[in-house]
Specification:
Elements lengths: L1 E4 L5 H13 L3 E4 L11 H4 L9 E4 L2 E4 L1 H11 L10 H29 L9 H25 L12 H13 L8 H10 L5 H4 L6
Parallel strand pairs: 1-2
Antiparallel strand pairs: 1-3, 3-4
Helix pairs in contact: 1-3, 1-6, 4-5, 4-6, 5-7
Length: 207
């Protein structure tokens, strides 16, 4: 049995849960993180020295880092429809997975923490404005890609890359500021509604 450690509201935990839904993987989930069991304990740090969720335990195998986890699940549980073995198709998916985890996430972090989480440490107006500008620039990159594919982020079909990207788009629309009009992104988000895990793990009221 696969066990997922992490609270269900976490965007990174939801990547894993959405992937499980698409691949029809049964799992048990344990609540860890803010408001639940603490991740700075020796018990949790023995699983992930970074003290972050999610972590999975698949029998005796332990893995952390959300995008690594979803790659593993697709490889382990017959997920070639989401993560093809063909090296070119897989590389294109990996490109967008890595972009989401690094460039896109880094751009929205300050603004999201300030505007949605109301973090006292993220209330400098100039920093919020700079974060929103960077976030908008990266969403413009996504808009260009989706305008080219007219479908999903890595091409014609829904893939593993659309899970973290979809969650980031949900966060974009859920953050209160004046959004520029990105028609391709809006249409893409509508298309994601046809996926198995979208309602439960993406557009579920949690940014």
């Amino acid at each position: 049995m696969l066990t997922v450690l992490g609270k269900a509201s976490s965007i990174n935990v939801r990547k894993v849960l959405w992937t499980c839904a698409e691949l029809h993987i049964s799992f048990e989930r344990e609540d860890w993180g803010t408001g639940f069991r603490q991740t700075d304990t020796p018990e949790f740090l023995s699983l992930n020295p970074n003290g972050l969720v999610p972590v999975i335990k698949d029998d005796d195998f332990v893995l952390w880092e959300s995008n690594s986890i979803i790659r593993y699940l697709a490889s382990r549980y017959a997920g070639e429809a989401l993560y093809p073995a063909d090296p070119i198709k897989r590389a294109r998916i990996d490109q967008w997975l890595d972009w989401q985890a690094s460039d896109l996430n880094r751009s929205w972090s300050y603004a999201f923490l300030g505007l949605v989480r109301k973090s006292a440490a993220h209330q400098v107006p100039g920093e919020i404005s700079a974060s929103l500008a960077g976030w908008t620039r990266h969403m413009g990159i996504l808009e260009g890609q989706l305008d080219a594919t007219r479908a999903f982020v890595a091409g014609e079909h829904f893939s593993l890359a659309d899970i973290p990207i979809g969650l980031s788009v949900n966060r974009w629309f859920s953050t209160p500021f004046e959004h520029p009009r990105f028609a391709a992104v809006s249409s893409y988000f509508d298309r994601l509604a046809d996926s198995t895990g979208f309602a439960a793990y993406c557009k579920n009221g949690t940014p």
